[in-house]
Amino acid sequence: MTEAKRKVLSPSYLKTFNCIASACENSCCIGFNIRIDPETFSKYKVENDPVIRKLFEENIYIIRSSTAKQDYITINPTKDYRCPFLTEEKLCFLQCRKGEQYLSEICASFPCIGNIFNGVLEKSATLACPEAARLALLQTEAMDLIEVEEPDDTRNFVYNLLNTEDEIFQNKPAKHLSELREFTWSILKDRRYHLDDRVVFLGAFMEEVDRLEKVSAVDRIPDLILSYTALFTDASAMKDITTIPVSPVPRISLFLPPAIRVILPSIESDRYLRCFSKFLEGIRFYASTSYTQVGKCYEEAYQRYYSPFMREHDYILENYLLNYVFIKLFPYDLNGNSVYYSYLLLAVNYALLKMQLVGISAYQQELTVDTAIMVIQSYTKAVEHKYPILHNLIQALKQNHLDSLAHITVFVKD
Ligand code: SF4
């Protein structure tokens, strides 16, 4: 009998992914609150093994909320933020004892995240996993999308299930999400322009999409895509973006202080805290140094280390963004925010990552592939994954009127 299969769309790097388990330098069993899906919890409730039963009683909690719908079940991490089922050898006790099928959906699937978009299962990996980050970021062709087949009974953690024909999207940009995603993909992949310029151009486009939504004209999105595609291929029109004069000083004085205020108190990971401290030290961001002096350090590091490294490895941040937009169904926002808000999240992530890479290169007096992976992976796990942190940063920018495209351009463009 032939095994039933289903089609999956995924970036090519996923084909070669294998968890490196005990050899992993930043295991997913450390630093996350792990939720358990109701189906797995039903299995756990009738567990007979007295050792496992006791562990469950001590470590699994139901978090009650005011609406029963939002109740959830979680594994309480230890004081040092480890999963209590993680052994000394950095292996999962439950998996060793009962097999992979016994794990919750997220534990069995991590780092893969699924979305069902217009009936098609899309799968990619979060770069919070170091091994996935290496595969996704260090190969030029890693983000080529391929169609593969998997057995029908493969367990997946499905984050989003979205159909653009759904009635609720009739007056929303999500009605044209297929076209918006395709357009985003083509802009971010087009290496004729510097990645900074591609990000700024995408912002100009998303601002227009937002405007169309406000005047109830989302059906003009396909035309808007056509006109922006023509603009993008016209190098003279793109000069409005490519020749914008830049300086790191306004970025450091306007963007960095709110970013530090929001991010620093939220950091729970030592690994990321070390990266963040090196970044600030690298650009000499001290109370006693002026923004002009910090800007000078930044500029020197940018020219001496960051820029030559990125000339050779420009695909690293490009792949980061492509993976980001694929996994998040960008510019869709699960929380119902506008497409421009989704864009702000993307741009702020990009700006923060760039600044940290520049700062760390100043600290280490070099930028290497290993450092780039460590910064991107630890940032993804400690900040990008924790939606409230970036949401609060965007609110802080909004309150100070720093969320316009003109400001974002200053924050992302070197
Ligand atoms: S983070 Fe990735 S490589 Fe490390 S243990 Fe988890 S799935 Fe495996």
Automatic annotation (TrEMBL):
It comes from the Bacteria. This is FliB domain protein. It comes from Dehalobacter restrictus (strain DSM 9455 / PER-K23).
